[in-house]
Amino acid sequence: MPRLHFKTFGCKANQYDTERMRQAVESAAAGAVRAAALEDADLCVVNTCTVTNQADAGARRFIRRAARVNPGVRIVVAGCSAVLRAEEYRGMAEVAGVVEGHDPVAVRDEVLRGRAVRRETRGLTVLRRRAGATRGWLKVQDGCDRKCAFCATRLARGRSRSRDPDEVVAEARVLARTHPELVITGVHIGHYGRDLAPRTTLTALVRRLLDEVAGTAETAAPRFRLGSIEATEIDDGMLDLLAGSGGRLAPHLHMPLQSGADPVLRGMRRWHTREQYRRRALEIAARLSPLGLGADIITGFPGESPADHADTVALVRELPFTYLHVFPYSPRDGTAAVRLGGHVPERVSRERGRELRALAGEKAAGYARGRAGDTAEVVMEGSGGTALTGDYLRVAVEAARAPDPSILHRGRLSAGGTRVILDTPEAARVN
Length: 431
Fold this sequence. Notes:
It contains 13 helices and 19 strands. The protein is α/β, with parallel strands linked by helices.
């Protein structure tokens, strides 16, 4: 009876891929059980990330630690870093096998090499659930056709490849049985459908999901949420769905910015200008209220001047962001950015990051205070006593009894928008 442990580094796409790997292995290995603790595992799959050199190093550190705490565990490495650094992982004494990518069947075969397995492939085309989570990931595409100068993910993931819309809808129906919220994710979801015949769009897919993944007598209709999507790829049709779905498409957008200065955006090989991003963000904010709005920003990119940083700060002040993910620039082998001049000292990059995070914190607190007293539909986050609103506020939960994590709940936001009270007359199952 194999005991399985999975370790995931990186993004939601990687987390989705891990669940597909887990499902493939468990479907083939009779009696397989999940080992929550690494020390209890016979087999360990490490799904790696390669977004930075530090991400690669983190995977290697985990592998070495795993072998120390559990000398008998069989370690298989997969994922993005395994594509770009396969020989390096194969050279590690702790590693028993390497899968260059995310193919769940290839991972299954490598993990269970030498064991008797059931060669059942029925049902492997769709993910049945995300283990141990209330929110499900619904991956609609993989890869990216853009060539941002700082990004290694496209090198590992390849060109953009969209899933068949019928398959996506079928998977969403299955996931909705156990997950009250489904997050539409991928590597570059704004390019969904461009490679399909007939060509389609993300907006068309989301419209189908809202229409065709409805509630049943046993299960309420799920809430959908867009994962990271470029500001310039949110068309008017998608904005109509966000504004008119009654919350079934969560009023939340995470739109990568990376910089608020045109010279830096050009160096990054981004395809939008500061003004294009600014104008679209303001157009969206004029249509949606409430609106959770987030962005990624990289500080200290090669050539970023004090004036460039000031432009980024000014843009963040102007736009209605409710949170930011701010990272100092980290050189990544194989990317165009490592060949650029204009190195920014790490100390300066980190100082700029602290300034932006402080500003983001102020804006987040102000937005939450403005939501106090409003009603909100929330999805529970496991058993930790927190929930997530449609507009992406993480709130503490107050309820007369433990809320059912398998459904959405409605309650009143209180205390500066940091708590949701479910034991009020407004509190009810959301149908």
